[in-house]
Amino acid sequence: MRPLFIALDMATKKEALTFLDGFHDERPAVKVGMELFYASGPVIVEELKARGHTVFLDLKCHDIPKTVERTMQTLANLGVDLVTLHASGGKAMMEAAKEGLETGAPPGTTAPRCVAVTALTSLSEKQMQTELLIERRLEDTVLHFTDMAVRSGLDGVVCSVNEVQRIRGAFGEGVYTVTPGIQLAETNSDDQKRAATPVEARQAGSNAIVVGRAITTSPEPLKTYDTIFKEWTGYSYG
C-alpha cells in the first residue's frame, strides 16, 4: 500500500484528534509537522499511535551530527513510522541520523524510515539560485541531494512530482519518494510552487503523498479524502 498522509497542520492536539474523529473507525495515515508537535509534544504521537494511525513525523531535522543522532534516537523510541531531515545538513549528519534511528528503536521493532528533504516544494528554481546562491538547476540539485541521501544509508527523499521520474531513472525503484504539495486539480495555492495532483503523483511513481488543506479545510473531509485516495490508488478507501 502506498500511503496518503493527511497533514495535520493544526495548532492543538484537541483540534487534530477531533478532526480525526470524523473518520469514525477508519485510521488514515497522518503527518505531524512542527506546528502540532511543538505545541503538543510527544503525547500527540503517542495518542495517534495508540489509535492505530501510521505516523509520519515531519520535523526536518538540521543540526550538527551528534545532536541529530540523539534526536533521532528519541523519535525512534516514540514508535513513529517515518521521519525527515534536510539533505543540506550533509552526509555525516544523515549517517548520524540513521545510526540514531537504529539504536533508538525499541527492541523487536523496525527503525522508522528516514527520508531527506531535497528542496521544499515552496521553493522555485529562481529563488534557489538568487536567494540560496545554488547555481545548479533545481532538478540537478535534487538529484545531487538524493545521491547523498542514498550513500548515507537513508531510505529515500522528499521531492516534488517533477523530480520523481529522474530519481527513478538515476537510482532505481529502491529509493522511497515522498511527494508533498498534492492538490486537487481545481485547487490553487500561493505557497506551493511545484504542486501536483494525486493522479500525476501516481503516474510519476511516487511511493507516498502528503495532502493538507484540500482535506483538512474541506466541508466534507472524509468524502474529499476518499476522492483523493481513489485518484492516488485507483480504488476507494475503507
From TrEMBL:
Assembly with partners or alone: Homodimer.
Phylogenetic classification of the source organism: Bacteria, Bacillati, Bacillota, Bacilli, Bacillales
Organism from which the protein derives: Natribacillus halophilus
Pfam families: OMPdecase
Residue ranges of every copy of the Orotidine 5'-phosphate decarboxylase domain listed in the record: 3-228
Catalytic activity: orotidine 5'-phosphate + H(+) = UMP + CO2
Pathway where it operates: Pyrimidine metabolism; UMP biosynthesis via de novo pathway; UMP from orotate: step 2/2
UniProt similarity note: Belongs to the OMP decarboxylase family. Type 1 subfamily.
Entry GO terms, CC: cytosol
Binding locations of substrate: 9, 31, 58-67, 121, 192, 212-213
Role noted for this protein: Catalyzes the decarboxylation of orotidine 5'-monophosphate (OMP) to uridine 5'-monophosphate (UMP).
Database matches in InterPro entries: Aldolase_TIM (IPR013785), OMPdecase (IPR014732), OMPdecase_AS (IPR018089), OMPdecase_bac (IPR047596), OMPdeCOase_dom (IPR001754), RibuloseP-bd_barrel (IPR011060)
Protein name: Orotidine 5'-phosphate decarboxylase
